[in-house]
Amino acid sequence: MTQNRTAVVTGAARGIGAATARRLSRDGYAVAVVDLDEAASEVVAASIREAGGSAVGVGVDVSDAEQVEAGVARIADELGPPVVLVNNAGIIRDNLIFRMTESDWDSVMNVHLRGAFLMTRACQAHMTAEKFGRIVNLSSSSAQGNRGQANYSAAKAGLQGFTKTLAIELGKFGVTANAVAPGFIQTDMTAATAERMGVSFEDFLAGAAKQTPVGRVGQPEDIAATISFLCSQEAGFVSGQVIYVAGGPLD
Ligand code: NAP
Description:
CATH class of the largest domain: Alpha Beta
Shape: globular
Helix content: 40-55%
Number of strands: 7
Order of helices and strands: EHEHEHEHEHEHHHE
CATH architecture of the largest domain: 3-Layer(aba) Sandwich
Radius of gyration: 17 Å
Distance between the termini: 32 Å
Largest sheet: 7 strands, parallel
Bound molecules: NADP nicotinamide-adenine-dinucleotide phosphate
């Protein structure tokens, strides 16, 4: 069913995004690997092509409306109408509230919330025309509050409301929208957090694994597998949900 269907994954040059792009390619999608740096996106796209898939690397700052419009038009042109969108691009600018700058706040809102809005607005036109669409937004366990992350937590909670509204508005066009909220995943992002806290990544991972009921931290592929299901044809009755993928219960 997914043949000749195009998926867009933002922030896909590394981490969860790259694993998701690879997974959606294995699921049969042509994949647009979107990231800030087109050369870095192209490295992931090339590895997907080498594995027998179809992919292009596209440089887009998701917070820039013009770049988003141009990037999505190029994707539609080169790969076909994008009917799957994974809003994964993200940054952290952690600080306790008394030290948080306006720039820390605005940068995080711009990438996570404005970026998801702009990408979704550009792609939904293709989904509604095709009468099929799957939107997955990356939220986080931090949506429930996390010390040093007032900006990130607000953005990730905001994405949950955004997701539910998309599900309500777009359902009649065959489009579902869901949020995946990861717990601790081993990526450059959590490595940066360890560095900020002055802890070695190894110790940070061991500490996180101890606090996780399944006794390990998550890997990007754990998140990619959940996204894969939500993007599948058979997930058409799952919409407006927030799925915590955290190795234990969260609600
Ligand atoms: P990551 O390794 O830091 O990768 C994020 C990617 O997004 C990077 O390639 C980054 O590009 C790209 N990006 C940043 N700003 C962008 C923009 N304006 N336009 C396009 N691309 C942009 O992060 P990750 O750990 O894989 O996280 C992926 C998503 O999952 C994020 O939304 C994150 O908040 C969420 N998440 C992660 C965890 C975790 O434990 N890792 C937990 C919960 C939720 P550059 O490298 O050029 O900056």
